[in-house]
Design brief:
The complex is a heterodimer of chains A (96) and B (165).
Chain A: H1 2-27, H2 31-54, H3 60-95
Helix pairs in contact in A: 1-2, 2-3
Chain B: H1 2-15, H2 19-39, H3 48-74, E1 83-88, H4 93-105, E2 109-115, E3 118-123, H5 131-142
Antiparallel strand pairs in B: 1-3, 2-3
Helix pairs in contact in B: 1-2, 4-5
Classes of the chains: A mainly alpha (96), B mainly alpha (165).
Chain lengths: 96, 165
């Protein structure tokens, strides 16, 4: 039961960050600023979600899988953010 | 060798330690290691212990980054002042990509590739002092490699290098 409460709090906080990331996508003015919102806020959201879910995991293997998901999403986010940023920059250059 | 252990560990987490899973792993882990060695042929030696040492600060920073950007996204006044800065980075290519990935999750910065040895960084708020943070992070990344940086002398932590394979 205490584990359920921890899960609720952490996952709830995670959702706030996903919501913030989405708000950023809608409110920020261009591709690059939107990328800031998306990568950073969603990364924290996912971290909180994963930590919250880990408290529900039936065994250590499931925790390991959750951590793997988090680590891979983190690496993917850091890498794709750079790639999108670079292509946005190149498009800006050619349109000027 | 390190790669074999790492990939085998990932396989175990994925598939569990059942007999069938182990048989399949016995076939595919070596294939994955071969692929890894081919795609990233022994780059710079990396000290795993030092990499693990980076984690706490990186996680703390990325949480701050998330809170920072969430605050700005929710604020009715939308307090952002985006701009570009260029930071000279002496890290080898792989290290520069790692630094860029880190920066993209840390407060206020987003890497967009590099020109020559200068990293292009988009900043969300030009009033934030990010240059110092970037330099600090670069310094920490240097300490995870056994590579010598050109010229500058680094004391560095005690050596426990053993090559990357």
């Amino acid at each position: 039961m205490p584990a359920d409460i921890v899960t609720l709090v952490l996952c709830g906080a995670g959702l706030v960050f996903f919501f913030a990331g989405t708000a950023g996508i809608i409110r920020f003015p261009d591709t690059l600023t939107r990328l800031h919102a998306l990568t950073k806020a969603d990364n924290v959201g996912l971290g909180l979600l994963i930590t919250g879910l880990a408290f529900q995991a039936p065994d250590w293997q499931s925790v390991g899988k959750l951590v793997l998901i988090w680590a891979m999403a983190l690496i993917a986010a850091g890498t794709t953010a750079q790639l999108v940023a670079r292509s946005a920059l190149q498009q800006q250059d050619t349109s000027q | 060798m390190k790669r074999t252990v790492a990939l085998a560990a990932i396989w175990l987490v994925f598939a569990g330690a059942g007999l069938e899973a182990l048989v399949v792993g016995l076939i595919f882990v070596p294939i994955a290691v071969g692929l890894s060695l081919r795609l990233v042929p022994d780059g710079i030696p990396v000290r795993l212990g030092a990499v693990a040492g980076l984690l706490p600060r990186f996680i703390a920073q990325s949480v701050i980054g998330g809170i920072d950007v969430a605050r700005r996204a929710f604020d009715p006044r939308l307090p952002i002042d985006p701009g570009w800065i260029e930071v000279p980075v002496a890290l080898p290519d792989g290290g520069r990509v790692a630094l860029g990935g880190e920066l993209s999750l840390m407060p206020g910065t987003l890497a967009a590739g590099s020109v020559g040895n200068r990293l292009l960084v988009h900043v969300l708020d030009r009033k934030q002092d990010v240059a110092a943070a970037i330099r600090h992070e670069e310094e920490r990344l240097w300490q995870t490699t056994g590579a010598r940086r050109g010229g500058a002398s680094t004391g560095g932590p005690p050596k426990d290098t053993e090559g990357s394979r």
